[in-house]
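Archive entry: two folds, one per protein. Generate the first.
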Amino acid sequence: MTSDIPLKDRYYEDFSVGDSFTLGSVEMVEEEMIAFATQFDPQRFHVDPEAAAQTIYGGLIASGWHTGSLMMRLSADDFLGDNCLGAAGASELSWPAPVRAGDILTLRIEVLSMRESNSRPNLGFLELTNELINQNGEVVIRVVPTMLIARKQVAD
């Protein structure tokens, strides 16, 4: 039965359209938000709490790239195993709500569609919805990637 197979050990055939998984969580820490943004996204509403208070956000918010990096970490920790062979791209990336210090973000993944590769019989494609959801139930980042997943028939 599929539900008995740990996510990181699943092959393409072990997933079904509509499968949904709620995985790990992370708490946003102001110092980490500022450190990330200082290095990679130094806009005033990400690095300066006083300046951020004067923006449309009314206070410091995390860089969207920071939330994306945290989403990737949670996915790698709890979802992506050796049968994941990378990604073909993403059809959507959105940040519907700002992320603030103290927010608790939880990863939810849902399988949207599946297809077998026409050119590589050892591969299948999973189109997923990856969302980080805050403690209030708001989606703060949504990514729809297409993942390359090894198929059982040709696995060693």
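Generate the second and append.
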Amino acid sequence: MIKYLGSKRRLVPALTVLARASGARTGLDLFSGTTRVAQAWKRLGIEMTAVDSARFAHVLARCYVATDPTAPGDLPGRLAAAVAHLDALPGRAGYVTATFCRQARYFQPGNGARIDAIRDAIEAEYAGSDLWPVLMTSLVEAADRVDSTTGLQMAYLKQWAPRSHRPLALRVPELVAGPGRAFRGDACELAGSPLVGDVDLAYLDPPYNQHRYDSNYHVWETLVAWDAPAHYGVARKRQDLRLPGSRSAFNGRRTMPEALSRVVTRVRADVIVLSYNNESWLSFDELRELCAARGHVEVLAFDSARYVGARIGIHSPSGRKVGTVSHVRNTEYVLVAGERTRVARMVAAVTAGGLGIRVDRPVPTPARSEEGPVPV
């Protein structure tokens, strides 16, 4: 999995227990991102649908959710051969090398040339095939392992990260058996659409603030689109990110509440699970009231480490630290809404396992330094 702001890696154990206790046979991950949650639920035997608006997230969903390695056609054998072929290609400098290695410093030039050569070969030899999204995922993950960032692509490190000196190497993604579907689009439009349809359990993990995932991960967007876009700024972001209408309603303080309300109201699921944190634009009580439209609501809380960039703090262009970090922890809330008995059973399974605590009011975030989340 790629480094990802908002990744639910540490919440996956609790979310897995929730899904298992729900008895769901079909599920929806409506802001799928890296697909960590969709993959975990798919491993339980839940037939998953993954939705995201970002190109790179859609590719990950096509790989890990929509691809079934057990289907007829010997995909594992063909995939292993394709990865070995691509991994043996010599580098050939192109757009990535020029833009993200020389004009910017996301990758060492040697790795940039490898990325260019492999991406060209994927398009020339595998476009339109069932291998394409899996090979693209392999390349994105390989590039992520040798980048020189803190995880976001809003900037790159002033000094090369140690991992950036390692040679880029492709790996075969660990696919999850079973059927699934992946759609790219706006959650507000797809939540209640016949295309997505009815599911037993839906997971909603919307953006928390003004930061856009297509902008935060613009290098992956360009790698997937492979359109050599015009760019701007030191970070060499895609010029089309500046176009009117390119920003999601979830990235605006005034538009987000209505957008989230629309999704929660329209999604066709028996039970919804909503992740949010105490640094978002909606308060604890507002979130509960919003979810109450779906039935009985219970809330789990988790103490969690903030994003590494927030813990490092703000630095001047010269590299001098400016100011102090106010806090290094926050509280993650997981709201579960639906039929009372089912919701209570799901939440009880999490608390019984010591994976989270049920709360009825906002909780202060402990000043702790260890990895999280842990029960508050």
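Annotation attached to the second fold: The chain has two domains: 1-68+178-212+247-376, 70-174. The chain has 14 helices and 13 strands.
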